[in-house]
Amino acid sequence: MRRQSEQIRMMSDREVLIHLYVTQLLLIVVSAIAGFFLFDISTFQKIWQFDATTVLTYGGGSAVIVLAIDFLTMRYLPEHWYDDGGINEKIFENRSIPHIFFLCLLIAFSEELLFRGVIQTHFGLFVASIIFALLHVRYLEKLFLFAMVVLLSFFLGYVYQWTNSLWVTIFAHFLIDFILAVHIRLDYVRNMKQKDGGDRV
To answer: Residue ranges of the CAAX prenyl protease 2/Lysostaphin resistance protein A-like domain (predicted)?
Structure first.
């Protein structure tokens, strides 16, 4: 993890951002190509059915559960257990809140489209969840973080299976990422204020 942290620190802010956008757009392209061959129109329409009450209840409720666990672990467990090598800090700490909002929406949409919408719909919960976890390669050296990602993936997979709505998991994924990213941003701003005596925002 130290080597990965050093690599991340060596990347410029622009390089990190470009890498993130390219990765997410690639997921969307892969989803579109795979979906073209795997979906018929009725199946495709079915996963995009939208019901606001279901999205808010199950998506929002799922996010609250995950966030509660995340914040409890950050409060009571040693920091090195959930340290990802500074990757999330590098991505989010210098972003404006609107930019964080857009990034988290893009990440949630692209990842849920591929892993839940395409892979889970056609190959099942187990396959989708394992691939989702393995592709978060930065967590492989951290047993606790990797276990959390695996559990999160299965949890979102079960929510998708239960509701049969991709909007639910997109909303849940977005809320989780957005709130944690804003937390990173606010921590960064607070630390800068303390460091500079309140002169820098």
So the answer is: 96-179
* Alpha helical stretches, state H, 77-139: 79-82, 87-92, 97-112, 121-123, 125-135
Report the alpha-carbon distance of residue 86 to residue 66 in Å, rounded.
21
Q: In 10 A of CB 89, how many CB atoms?
A: 18
Place of tokens 């996010």: 63
**Which of the four pLDDT bands, split at 50, 70 and 90, describes residue 50?**
very high
pLDDT in tens, 177-199: 999 999 999 998 888 888 776 54
Please give the full DSSP string across 2-67, using - where no structure is assigned. Answer: HHHHHHHHHS-HHHHHHHHHHHHHHHHHHHHHHHHHH--HHHHHHHT---HHHIIIIIHHHHHHHH
CA 201, CA 192: separation in Å to the nearest integer? 7
Residue of 186, 124, 141 whose CA lies nearest to 116: 124
Q: Which residues, 6 or more positions from 150, have their beta carbon under 8 angstroms from its beta carbon? A: 129, 130, 133
Query: By the 8 A CB rule, do 106 and 20 touch?
Result: no
In terms of pLDDT, which residue wins out, 35 or 107? 107
